[in-house]
Amino acid sequence: MNLWGKGSLDTKEMKIADVGCGPLGGVSTLLEGCSIERFDPLMNEYKKYFYIENGSNEQAEFINYRRFNLIIATNCIDHFESPTLFLNQINKTSVYGCYFAHFHAINNAITHPHKAHVYNINQEKIKEILDEKWELIWQMDYNIDKLVYGWKKQPAFSQLWRKIKK
Q1: CA dihedral (161, 163, 165, 166) positive or negative
Q2: Which residues contact 88 (CB under 8 A, 6 or more apart)?
Q3: β-strands 68-74, 94-105: how paired?
Q4: For burial by CB atoms within 10 Å, which of 51, 58, 113, 151 has the most?
Q5: Between 2 and 110, where is the model more confident?
Q6: Topology of the domain comprising 15-163
């Protein structure tokens, strides 16, 4: 996994959770040599409009008590019934040294109102929940890097965290 000129993360041999993968499989479709499980909080909604071929995509919710080395979340944290619960669940589903990589539009409930965008996610919210057991090792954001998301070009941020406490 390339970190945009700031190094890379060797994902071979990793057990990976791709959260927010959508109906087509998400970011993890680019990774090779690893074990991948895909989850999306809106999967039941996608099934109404798309044929879902891959059996692993049929699980609509993030499942507790798996042991992952890398958890990827792509603009989906605000789609969960409780983003705080999801972020707390990654502590249960990750091994010591696990990486958590996510990319998200900032304050999506304000910038792109939609029934799936009920919560605002931003750097402060993520840090508030992860800060005790995780360390931030890399990030990009709108203010410094002009990072945007989607066709509306919403301000966005991306971070890579590493679990440092059990």
Answers
A1: positive
A2: 129
A3: parallel
A4: 58
A5: 110
A6: Rossmann fold (3.40.50)
